[in-house]
Amino acid sequence: MSALLQVRGIGWHAGPVAVLHRVGFDVAAGEFVAIMGRNGAGKSTLLDIIAGIRKPSEGIVTLLNRPLTTWSATERARIVAHLPQNLRTDMTMRAEALVLMGRYAHQSQWFESSGDLEIAHAAMQRCDCFQYRDRALGTLSGGERQRVFLAACLAQRPQVLLLDEPTTFLDIDQQLHCFTVLRDEASRGTACLAVTHDLNLALTFCTRLVVLAGHAVAFDLPAASALHDPGWLRVFSERLRVETGTAGVRVGYQ
Amino acid sequence: MTLTSKRLSAVWLAGSAAVFIAAAAFLPFVGPSRLDWVHVVQRQEPDWSILTQLRVSRTLLGLFAGGALALAGSVFQSMLRDALATPYTLGVSTGASLGAVLAIAANLHTALGVTGVWAGALAGAAFVLLLVMGAARKERRVSVSGLLLAGIAINSVCGALILLVLGLSGMSQSFAISRWLIGSLDAVEYPTLLIYVAIVTVVSVGVIRQARQWNLLAVGESWAATRGAHVTQSLVAGYVAGSVLAATTVALTGPIGFVGLVVPHVVRARVGGDDRLVMPCAFLLGGVLLASCDALGRVLLAPAEIPAGAITAFIGGPHLVWVVRKGSTR
Prior knowledge:
The complex is a heterodimer of chains A (254) and B (330).
Chain A: E1 5-14, E2 17-27, E3 32-37, H1 43-51, E4 58-63, E5 66-67, H2 73-79, E6 80-83, H3 95-100, H4 114-126, H5 142-155, E7 160-164, H6 172-187, E8 191-195, H7 199-205, E9 208-213, E10 216-222, E11 240-245, E12 248-253
Parallel strand pairs in A: 3-8, 3-9, 6-7, 7-8
Antiparallel strand pairs in A: 1-2, 1-4, 4-5, 9-10, 11-12
Helix pairs in contact in A: 4-5
Chain B: H1 3-26, H2 37-41, H3 47-79, H4 92-105, E1 110-111, E2 114-115, H5 116-136, E3 137-138, E4 141-142, H6 144-168, H7 171-182, H8 190-209, H9 211-219, H10 221-225, H11 231-253, H12 259-271, H13 275-299, H14 308-325
Antiparallel strand pairs in B: 1-2, 3-4
Helix pairs in contact in B: 1-13, 3-8, 3-9, 3-11, 3-12, 3-13, 4-5, 4-6, 4-7, 4-11, 5-6, 5-11, 8-11, 12-13, 12-14, 13-14
């Protein structure tokens, strides 16, 4: 089986400054990939390129065996959902109306059908935000709003789900809930790629870690074996240690 | 759309349309000289002429100008994600004003067969439109920040030029310019009104049909791009459409303030942030607001007239403060 998503030789320059250089990996259906790296490593840029928002300076992204550049925006939106960072917070729009935006690409009618509404409600229930459906987005807390945005991504019924730091603003219980939802989504066959800084969340829930450093993929390894070979931790900090305790193997720091 | 919110939308739309039609029927009878129904039906002079030649065209101009400004404001507020955006934010209306002011200062009564002020305003608007578009484009893409920066920069340049022209022109011109810059409604000839109403209707329907794109852009550019919107095309279309609405209106009425800022806010606070409902309601209610303000201005200090632009500012300013204090705005 060929990969759902192929990233080949991607380069991206901001003027003369190289941000990404020859980045490449394949993602199959059902994988849950953590995109990691230090600040400025190009994680968000890479996610934007895969989402089709930015054009790479070089290289090619292939989705379902077709170059991403040949997909129309609507076609792409039926397959790929993307949750950006820093979304607007001061909106009077109701949470349910926002989640229904996930259905825009799937039908051309002015108003969504009752089928679309059912899909939106199911997504809101999975993200634990159904109770906010009639609230204006501006009245929700940051974490509550983030769950609504995630529900909008699920309502899009994507085959590829791209998330840029989805656990920003979430309390610890909600972080665990969010990654559980994403793991479920991956087990249903969606390829999930999440940018995250939380090593233990990534190790617990993801199937694979892609670590960016020096403009390229420095490490690409299965999450299950990542702690047996902890050299990749040096990318983040010299102070990280693998600890074995009652809670199992975890990354700790000194 | 749930069943209840669909029904609620229908109620809001039908209600707004009913108020719009009621205003069109009732407001022409408001004015310094009382009109008698019986005289009008019997086509007796001067009642018949006052109604058909002056009041009806003026009321229709108010309804469509208010609608155009409110809709242009809604589009700019959504696509620029800026609660303070108005039809005048991106410079086109100031460009139109500059053109009109130059025409007044140069005593240009007619140009190319149309009124000089009209021709000047449209030329000024078109010039600024091209200028802003050229400045905002970067690598064949247009971004919100690019549009805002270019628009605000050119806005302030045009504003400075207006002050310069005002300072250099003689007494009578300078009075006419100041008067024009307040913004007011006046009776217009029916052919002119017909062209204006046709342009506003076509552009407004086009804008409202794209309401889902405005909803997406109101959340964010990346958000819109990955949900099927064509961001650059939509931004350009929204900018051009909003500018056509604002510029044709400013050409006829002068820069009437506050309708484009206040009406979208108030409507959004009432009906929620979905532009599929906000935009048509803002158009209809914005029209009613401006036409009513104008009718009020005709009778408050009769026989003197208060310009509609001054009344909208008097009513709009405090009302906006009230809405914001209630904390229900965007």
